[in-house]
Structures are given as structure tokens and as C-alpha cells.
Design brief:
- The structure is a homodimer.
- By secondary structure, the first copy, chain A, is α/β, with parallel strands linked by helices.
- Chain A has four domains: 11-26 and 181-329, 3-Layer(aba) Sandwich (Molybdenum Cofactor Biosythetic Enzyme, Chain A); 28-50 and 148-180, Molybdopterin biosynthesis moea protein, domain 2 (Alpha-Beta Complex), CATH 3.90.105; 55-142, Molybdopterin biosynthesis moeA protein, domain 3; 335-402, MoeA, C-terminal, domain IV (Beta-clip, Beta Barrel).
- Helix content of chain A is 20%, strand content 31%.
- Chain A has helices spanning 11-19, 65-68, 163-171, 210-220, 235-244, 264-272, 305-323, 373-378, 403-406, and strands spanning 27-31, 44-45, 55-56, 60-63, 77-85, 99-103, 115-118, 122-125, 128-131, 141-142, 153-155, 176-180, 184-190, 194-195, 206-207, 224-231, 250-254, 274-278, 282-283, 289-293, 296-301, 335-340, 344-345, 351-359, 362-365, 381-385, 391-392, 397-402.
- In chain A, strands 7-4-6-5-9-8 form a six-stranded mixed beta sheet. Chain A has a six-stranded mixed beta sheet with strand order 16-13-17-21-20-18, with helices on both faces.
- The longest helix of chain A is centred in the C-terminal third of the chain and has 19 residues, at 305-323.
- Chain A is elongated, with a radius of gyration of 32 Å.
- The two termini of chain A are 43 Å apart.
- The mean pLDDT of chain A is 92.
Chain lengths: 408, 408
């Protein structure tokens, strides 16, 4: 009588089960141009000194520091200018007592010089250089290796390639870098009533919602979605489609998980792999299946678009981020404490994910069913009602998970 | 004597100046597959009813509700099963008194039926359907247009296309959508000492850092970087390169802004466009130029990599996000209040952006110069020391801007 869930589990147990699956992580090389926000898959050591030579860190005059001792506004030192060296050029002369070489920021330090007087404290009067301030030994010189020495560790596996990290890789002349590959995720919609967007909408049919919303959700987790089309709710079609996409890292289907839909996914998994979870004590999202085929994890999400996305956010997204090595940045668990604007009735015996809109610093429950994708589009976040709680009173403080933290 | 900045401005005045420039925003069409996190450039109205027909929202039996009144566990009602309709199929029969049609979630409601009894409250004994619970009128039916009516507003220009919003567009069968085009940003490195990564590092030369770190930074702002190579610090080369890339929306150069580098960018802008800013009273970043050529904004960043990125984060990024219509999500201004681990000396007469590492809930200043890209790679954030403050005492509370909020 009615739907049978073979392995119904509490949400916390499902999370633990997924935490214990260690997905295989692939590594690939990308150019720095394509490395933005990828996750480093190798430790990087300096292969050169930085700076690679002694260089001027200011515009000014390279001098023998001792020549300038005692120089001041009232008592300038006069030096002979030997040449002018811009960044990128090589000095041809040596600084000797009583002489100087003009250098730009970034220019190599001429032999014999051991300090730079900033141009602000000098004056060039027809080739005679007046020095109005003393330079100490090493002043305004960035010595070879002073920022980083060849062989020193620079970046670590697991770090995010933000602009500064990519700058570090550029500084040592790296052209490409090893990063964790983006897991490939096949997305399959199942349902006899589901049609593609280039078809005409006939009576009894609806446009496929989940393929595109899941494409976006999968991208949010640093994975590459592979849109794999729509299949009918038949054992043969679902089996064929799953066999077709087994070269990906993870498979996500939606629909076809309830008794009414023939529960075809469960049967296919029973025959070809393992069913790990069949039914989760949550609302929305009860008819969720999690299984394995050929070491690939397969998530069978409910067909209802809100249920599909909520199950995605709560259970699938953390798993995908783990696979993409993105946990460090996820921020999924940041919540906002807000007061509930009205009494809320929750499902009996199941954890409920209740959508809310935030207005006037209050959380307003959105009372639409999980078939209504517009409910999620209106929502700012959700709160979780534990399975043993049925009523939350108006004005209670709740922890709201923000949807904007779930999508990047 | 020394560097001359023609139009040196305080940081707040530069921000105001940039706020007042209204960049032109281009619009383009993208497929839903490519719409992830793009910004909607049109208001979207429903072109169909949702659901598009009366449909079952549960698996069960479509009945005349009045047939079931009074039904209970102890007192079931017996109904004749006419047919079974799965989602995607069309009923061929009409429900009359004493009969029912089995329907799956999503199936069209058969004529004559006005309620669905969930399958959990029924039993099928050899084709005879026992109903153990009463259905009220409309129970478990999602009526045509009950979620959204044709013509109603769905989404607004300026909204982010998160998975749920893309789900809404899918629900009404949209294949493509108008979004604000990603601004194209040319990135030019200038400097005689700068070489590309495929060149051998010769004495006096350094690898180009800023091109790739700015590519990443520009992507963080929802813009498309166009790597435009390295030019020498010569008037002719800079002029030619800028003329070459004028089909982009914004130009960013780095290097070539100081007196020692010949200040070529300022001269080029003086002759071909306008210099709006020449010098900002900040550290690092003083030798920054902002100008316009042919209605295109051009940012001339300092050559030092840390200075280039800090000026980018503080001044350029908000402008790019405005151009990309991404202000709503920027979060640039979220700060963390932390205690400073040691006394900090700041630049006289300039606002200072001081990098810090966060450890043990304290902000530890990073004391490297702005030539050291590794300083930024080690940093978690920065705090701003106002220009009239020279010393911040150990233990003072400071507001730390987090670098991870600046890159997405």
C-alpha cells in the first residue's frame, strides 16, 4: 500500500554516509590564463630567486653610500653622473668614489653602488648631481633573493588560485600549473511528461526545469555539468542512459524516484550497482535515491524542481565541493539569526527545509509547494525544522541559511 | 625635482569621480546553459500558465470528492478503476460517480474528477479500489495557472541568474535570455624590463606578473579579460597599443606611470584623451593614472604587483562591477573587526592599505614592500589607515577587508 522506501534514512545519517565516501580526484594542467579560482594540485617551490638580481626599488641615483654621509639640504654632496639606466637595461659603468648612475625603479644596481638616493632628494644641474640626503648601505635596493630564495616553498596544494597566487606563479615564470580537475557531472531528467525547450508544449506535458537549474547548481560547486537529456520513466531507457554516461565522475538524475513514476531508478540501481539510500526523512525531498554504479555515485533527486534543488543544496553540493576540493570556500554553513514572522507548521517525522523571504529583518515563510519553482526564486534562504518539532511559534529565533551563500 | 603628479587626489575623491561615470552597458542573448550567474537585462513575464494544465500533485486516485466523504480506515469506500494515467499521458475516460482513475504525480486530471486521494490511503484489491480517507474538493490538484498566470511578472532586470531563476526561465520554456554583456577589459603590461613567460630570463629582466594577476582579478568582477601583451615604456609603443585595443570597454595598463619610467602613459593620454587623475594619495598606489580615450576609461596602475592589485581592488573593481551590473553581489564592504597584533607605522599624508594575516583572531601586519607579490599571497585582508593617522597602537581594533570577499 503506497510508496515503499527500502532504506529511508535521517538527514544526518545521509550526510555522514556521504562524508565517508572519498571521491577520486583527478588532476589536470591549465595555463595561468585559465587558472582563475582553480584549486592547486601541487606544492609550488621557487625555481628562481626573487628579485632575480639586485635592483632599484625607487627612482634615483645609485651611489656609494659613504659618499653621501652627512649630505643635507644645506650641505649637498656633488657627484658626477656616469650614465642613466632604465629598467630593463644593463649598466655599462661602475660607480666609483665621487660618481653616481641614475637608475629607474626596477633597474639593475650598477657595480660599485651600495645605496640609492631617491630622486626627490637630488637635483640635476646641467649634469651635476646634487645629493641633499644621505643614503645608508643597501637603501632602496631590493637584493637578489630578498623576497624569495630559489627552492623555498611558495604555494601549497589545496590553495585557491586567486589573483595574488596567480601573480606568484607568474613571478617565477610558470606557464601552466597543476590543478584539481573539475568533476564532470551528468545531468539527466526523467519523466514521460518532460519535454525539451525546442518542442511545442502539448497538453499533459511540461518543459524540463531541472536540467537547466541543475546545470547552474553544478557550476556553483566548481564542477562541469554534462547535460545528458531527458529519458522516459522506463527501466530500459534509464538503464541505457546511465550506461551511456558512465565516463563522467558523478551522475545526477531527477524524477523517476517515486512509486507512481514506477521507481525505475531504484530497480536499475538494484540490478547494476548498489542502492545506498532510498528515501530521506526530509521535506521536501523524501523520494531521494543515492546509489553507486561502477564506483560512480549517482544521486536520484525528486522530480519537483524545488525538492530537487533543496536536496541538491543540502546533500549533493557539499559532496560535489569535496570532489572539486572546494570545501574551504564553501561558506554553506553561514547562517543569519532572524525572527520568524508567523507560526510555522512542519511535517511530522521529517526534517523540513522551509523557504523564507527576508524583509524588515524578519524571516517570512513562503507557503508554496515544492512543485512551484517560483517559491525558490522568491526565497532568500531556508531554515531547518528538526524532525521532532511540528510547530515553530511566531517570533521564534531561527537560523536562516542564505541561498546566495549556496551559489557562487 | 622628483616625480610630478599633475592631479593628485584623495582616495575618497577618486571613488566619487568613478561613481559619477556611468558606463555604457551592452546587452547580449545567451542560452540558459550559459546563463549561470549572469545578470538579467530584461523583465521576464510568464508566456504560459504554470502549471500549464490541471495536474495531480500526488500519486493517487482521481475521484469525485463527494464519493469519498466519510471514508475512513474502518469504513472504506469502494470505487471502480477505469484506467491508469501516468504523467505525460492523457486520460481517455471521464470519472463518473462510483469510479476513479489512477494518476501519477504530474498527470493531467481526468474530466469529472475534483480531488485526488493519496495512494497511501487506498488499496487495490484485484482491481477494486478501497478508499480509506476522504478527499476534499481540489485536494492534491495543482490547477492550471495556480503557480503563475500567463502575463504575470516573473523576474526583473538586474536579477542574478541563480539556479532557481534559471529554473523559472526553464519552466516557461525559454531557450535564451537577455543578459548584460561581460565588459571586455584589455590588459597591457608596460616596462622595458618585463618579459613573457615563454622567454628566457636574462639579467635585468623580470617575468610579467601583472598581466596574469589582472586577468584573474578582472574575471572576479564578471568581466572578460583580453590579454594584450607587453609594451616598452615608449610613447610610440604605448600609443600604438592603446589605439589597437580601443574596441574593448575598458583598458587597464600597469607600469609606466612613474617619472622614472618616463611617465609615458600620462603623455599619451594628454595628447589623445583626458587625464582625470594623476596620482592618488594612497600607499601603495600613488603613481596611478585614470583617464579617458574615446569615451573608454583607462586605468594606469603602478607596475609593482601589490600596488597594482590593491589599486585594482579599491578603485577599479567597484567600477568594473558597476559596468557588469554586479554591484548587488559584491560584498566588498564586509569587514571583520579585529585587534592589531603590533604597533603599525603608516605613510605620512596618504591613506595606507596595510596587508594583514589573520591568526588567533588577531590581525598581524605583513611588513613587505609593494614589490613583493608574496606579501599579498600571504595576506588574508587589509585595513585602511586614514591619511591623517601615522601610528596605530598595538591592540587597537581595526576593520579588516577580507581578500576572499574581493575575488569570486
Amino acid at each position: 500500500m503506497g510508496q515503499e522506501f527500502l532504506k529511508i534514512m535521517d538527514s544526518e545519517d545521509v550526510k555522514k554516509l556521504l562524508d565517508n565516501i572519498q571521491p577520486k580526484r583527478r588532476v589536470e594542467s591549465v595555463s595561468l590564463e585559465d587558472a582563475h579560482m582553480r584549486v592547486l594540485a601541487e606544492d609550488v617551490y621557487a625555481n628562481i630567486n626573487l628579485p632575480p638580481f639586485d635592483r632599484a626599488s625607487m627612482d634615483g641615483y645609485a651611489v656609494k653610500a659613504e659618499d653621501t654621509f652627512g649630505a643635507s639640504e644645506d650641505n649637498p654632496v656633488l657627484l658626477e653622473l656616469l650614465e642613466t639606466i632604465k629598467a630593463g637595461y644593463i649598466p655599462t659603468k661602475k660607480v666609483k668614489k665621487g660618481t653616481c648612475i641614475e637608475v629607474s625603479t626596477g633597474a639593475p644596481i650598477p657595480h660599485g653602488a651600495d645605496g640609492i638616493v631617491m630622486i626627490e632628494f637630488t637635483e640635476n644641474k646641467e649634469g651635476n648631481i646634487y645629493i641633499y640626503d644621505s643614503a645608508h648601505m643597501g637603501e632602496n635596493i631590493a637584493y637578489e633573493g630578498s623576497e624569495i630564495k630559489k627552492g623555498e616553498p611558495l604555494l601549497n596544494e589545496g590553495q585557491f588560485l586567486t589573483p595574488d597566487k596567480i601573480g606568484v606563479l607568474s613571478a617565477i615564470g610558470m606557464r601552466g600549473v597543476k590543478v584539481f580537475a573539475k568533476p564532470k557531472v551528468a545531468i539527466i531528467s526523467t519523466g514521460n511528461e518532460i519535454i525539451e525547450h525546442d518542442k511545442e508544449l502539448q497538453y499533459g506535458k511540461i518543459f524540463d526545469i531541472n536540467s537547466q537549474s541543475l546545470v547552474s547548481a553544478v557550476k556553483s560547486c566548481g564542477c562541469t555539468p554534462i547535460t545528458s537529456g531527458i529519458v522516459k520513466d522506463s527501466y530500459k531507457d534509464v538503464l541505457e542512459k546511465i550506461s551511456e554516461v558512465l565516463d563522467v565522475d558523478i551522475i545526477i538524475t531527477s524524477g523517476g524516484t517515486s512509486a507512481g513514476a514506477g521507481d525505475v531508478l531504484r530497480k536499475v540501481l538494484d540490478d547494476t550497482g548498489d542502492v545506498l539510500v532510498h528515501g530521506i526523512a526530509v521535506k521536501p525531498g523524501k523520494p531521494t535515491i543515492i546509489g553507486m554504479v561502477n564506483d560512480k555515485v549517482i544521486f536520484g533527486l525528486p522530480g519537483y524542481p524545488v525538492a530537487a534543488l533543496m536536496v541538491f543544496y543540502v546533500f549533493v553540493a557539499p559532496f560535489l565541493r569535496k570532489m572539486a576540493s572546494l570545501e574551504i570556500y564553501s561558506g554553506d554553513n553561514e547562517t543569519l539569526r532572524l525572527k520568524l514572522s508567523r507560526r510555522y507548521h512542519s511535517a511530522r517525522g521529517r526534517s523540513q527545509y522551509a523557504l523564507v523571504k527576508i524583509e524588515d529583518n524578519m524571516a517570512h515563510p513562503i507557503l508554496k509547494d515544492s512543485g512551484a519553482i517560483t517559491a525558490l526564486a522568491e526565497a532568500d534562504g531556508y531554515f531547518e525544522v528538526p524532525k521532532n518539532v511540528e510547530i515553530i511559534q511566531e517570533g521564534s529565533e531561527i537560523e536562516v541559511y542564505l541561498l546566495k551563500n549556496l551559489v557562487k
